[in-house]
Amino acid sequence: xxxxxYNVLMVAPTPFFADYGCHVRIAEEAKFLTSSGNRVYxxxxxxxxxxxxxxxxxxxxxxxxxxxxxxxxxxxxxxxxLLFFKSLRIALRQKIDxxxxxxxxxxxxxxxxxxxxxxxxxxxxxxxxxxxxxxxRFLRPEGPFFRAMRALEWLIDHMPNAIIASSEHAAELLKKxxxxxxxxxxIVPDCVNPNSxxxxxxxxxxxxxxxxxxxxxxxxxxxxxxGLLAEYQGTSILLQAAEEIAKSRPDVHFLIMGYPGEELxxxxxxxxxIADRTxxxxxxxxxxxxxxxxxxxxxxxxxxxxxxxxGKILNYMAMSLPTVAFDTPVSxxxxxELGVYAESGNPKALAEAISSLLDDEERAIExxxxxxxxxxxxxxxxxxxxxxxxxxSEICE
Length: 397
Hints:
With 397 residues, this protein is α/β, with parallel strands linked by helices. It has helices spanning 21-35, 73-94, 103-117, 129-135, 146-157, 168-176, 204-214, 235-246, 262-271, 289-293, 312-318, 329-335, 347-358, 361-378, 381-396; strands at 7-12, 39-44, 55-58, 98-102, 121-125, 162-165, 185-187, 221-226, 252-257, 278-282, 298-301, 323-326, 340-342. Mean pLDDT is 92; it is low at 64-71.
């Protein structure tokens, strides 16, 4: 029996595509949904990077926005207002079957559009709204607006016909903290394309050439990080761990890839006396990420947030990189017994965990190989999208 295909309105209240986090999930979902015969229309903010092969509709207002910038509040409010009308127009024009909403703002917009058109809504939940606002310092848990925002989050979480949770931890959060109906919640974890993220992407000559171009000592052991640079991502703690390692390991270098705040953290590295032991690349296009990760001996994921996903870990796994992470539920959900863990927020513990892999090359290689095997076997986008289409079928029939 041939499975039905769908016209999908994907609401993305963010400057898609921006080479990080939820943008990767949006792009990969849309790519594999399209390849399986569905039509996906991504409605997003006016700025962002276009990707060939995607149907992207943008609102037309405002200037660029920095991730986590408090100055972006006005931008967000107006962009979301315009995004609602753009979503409604596209849904009417393309005869949308299902609305697939990302982030809480997208779920709210999707719910209203869905009510007008009678279309079901899937909410792709990737973390708590209020927890994220606390992480980004938009809210204080003891502040006057926290309870109101928590109530709004509770309301939004109960609006959609189905919720996709990116981890078991996220699913439990929805059930226990926000009282969501378990029958509405479906776990579809972040996944990875192992054909793009593969350890053989560079030959030895290319590897040495890229190292030289980046100014990395050719014989150094290299610890790699790829992701946003921010306090809740553990960037300062990573640099403090690098300082600790530098005291006894002159052969170790840190390649830190990401944005924003590159200059801020470059300055912190200089204050810590490790400017010559760190290389900051700034923003790395997602398509180029495998080449840069292929330089690494050890990968690190020091994210502090306990509710958001951590897709970078899957990229590390697919690249056969032994991975050190803080002992958060989401990190353990991906890495399991194959991860090396440090006490959350403890730079000395992080340094010790990284050093343990640098000191035991045989163990590091074995862990890396097993992590790639797990990524290929468990975290396939093809299987994930099959599950998503099954959810569409369940709520559309």
